[in-house]
């Protein structure tokens, strides 16, 4: 996963005594993307369809404590009854009133689903690192 530019700036400002610590409102939402995001621009999120609900109601993911500069997901992420689509990336968003995009990353390989399929990401398959 890569940090979005706004989140990276908040962390750096805090580390250098230039701002307050960044805040995150849980749960952390995992959104499925059909186009490539960048550090400054979100990808195109899969539309609400079949069993997928995105945006502020997207499924959540939790992380274990960081070790050696990295943290891994401690929950599986599963969507049943997927629409026909191709997922290329995921993004992590917090749950504030105006959700903040925090991180983004490509899947190891794009995943094409048929209508009714189940899409899953295993425990530990989402990692976040600063080292």
Task: Give an overview in words.
The protein has one domain. 8% of the residues lie in helices and 34% in strands. The protein contains 1 helix and 9 strands. The chain has a 5-stranded antiparallel beta sheet. A hairpin with a 7-residue loop joins strand 6 and strand 7. The longest helix has 11 residues. The mean pLDDT is 96.
How much helical structure, as a percent, in the residues?
Answer: under 10%
Bulk shape: globular
Instruction: Report strand %.
Output: 25-35%
Within the largest sheet, what's the order of strands?
Answer: 1-7-6-2-3
What is the first-to-last residue Cα distance? 12 Å
* Main sheet record: 5 strands, antiparallel
Overall structural domain count: 1
Structural class: mainly beta
The string of secondary-structure elements, in order, is EHEEEEEEEE
The tally of beta strands, per DSSP, is 9
- Low-pLDDT parts are none
Q: How many helices in DSSP terms?
A: 1
**Gyration radius, in Å:** 15 Å
- Give the overall average pLDDT: 96
What is the topological layout?
Elements: E1 2-3, H1 5-15, E2 28-33, E3 60-61, E4 70-72, E5 77-79, E6 85-93, E7 101-113, E8 119-121, E9 127-129
Antiparallel strand pairs: 1-7, 2-3, 2-6, 4-9, 5-8, 6-7
Features of this protein?
131 residues, mainly beta, 9 strands, 8% helix
